[in-house]
Amino acid sequence: MTNIAEEMETPFIAQPTSSERLPPPLKWAGGKRWLLGSLAPIFERHREKRLVEPFAGGMAITLGLRPTRALVNDVNPHLINFYHQVRNSLSISEQELRNERDFYFAQRSRFNELIATGKSDTAEAAAIFYYLNRTGFNGLCRFNSKGEFNVPFGRYKTINYVRDFSAYASTFKQWSFTCGDFSKLPVEQEDFLYLDPPYDVEFTKYSKEGFSWSDQARLVEWLSLLRNPMVVSNQATHRVIELYQEAGFEITTVSGPRRISCTGEREPALEMLAFRNL
What is the CATH number of domain 92-163? Predict the structure, then answer.
């Protein structure tokens, strides 16, 4: 097998062009768009395969690699509903996208009302979710103990909202979107997997239940049962690296930007990339 660390240091020319890539429509903490330069040459060798991303988040990697077929999953039902509605030609009027504090809190209340009344899987809920994501603080997605969205107003001077998602809709027609635990995904023998699980840090809350160390270990145990080509990214903590090395993954590390931190730090953080069956 080619040495991954050495290959990543070599410039790769035949990457998707900027016109072929789609930027993430959502702001999302921990997005990995900056990893595209490293992952594109690896995926190019498997481009005929379906791309499976069990922890979709803002979907920066899948949108950047632009596979013909993809299975996109996340445990956040509001996120997956947004992608479903985009696939169904979601559009948002200009009146629904106002960078105003009072309007933001009114829309946040309406979103929580939709959740409480079982209407969180609608086009209206998806439109408000997009608005809250783009207008709220740092693109956070956070809920209180009552299940209410409680992210504060973001106070941006300007926001470049998207109203027409048709460019995404045409691509999404060939992709499948599911909501649930990674272990329930119907992975097929010829799939290529990219996984970006929640970081192994105390302050990360990926879902209402969080993502514990036992979940990190459960993920690696599940991956060990698969023979698919796969790449996993995670923060390069000592125990994460050890966990993947013991499972037979090839490991390399790269320096990446720290976008959001509980301490407000912005210095580069070391990222682990784990590879198997490439």
Answer: 1.10.1020.10
Task: Look at the pTM and tell me if it is higher than 0.85.
Answer: yes
The domain segmentation of the chain, as residue ranges, is 4-79+169-276, 92-163
CA nearest to 61, candidates 195, 187, 160, 255: 195
Give me the tens of pLDDT residue by residue for the chain, a chain 278 residues long: 445 554 444 333 233 344 467 899 999 988 899 999 999 999 999 999 999 999 999 999 999 999 999 999 999 999 999 999 999 999 999 999 999 999 999 999 999 999 999 999 999 999 999 999 999 999 899 999 899 999 999 999 999 999 999 999 999 999 999 999 999 999 999 999 999 999 887 644 445 567 899 999 999 999 999 999 999 999 999 999 999 999 999 999 998 776 544 455 556 678 999 999 99
Give CA–CA dist 194/65, Å, rounded.
11
Residue carrying structure tokens 């990214």: 233
Would you tell me how many other CB atoms lie within 10 Å of the CB of residue 247? 15
**117-154 per-residue burial string, b: 16 or more CB within 10 A, e: under 16:** eeebeebebbbbbbbbbbbbeebbbebeeeeebebebb
Query: What's the CA gap between 275 and 237, in Å, rounded?
Result: 16
Q: What φ, ψ does residue 14 adopt, rounded to 5°?
A: -85, 50
Is the distance from CB of 249 to CB of 275 less than 8 angstroms?
A: yes
CATH T-level assignment (fold) for domain 4-79+169-276: Rossmann fold (3.40.50)
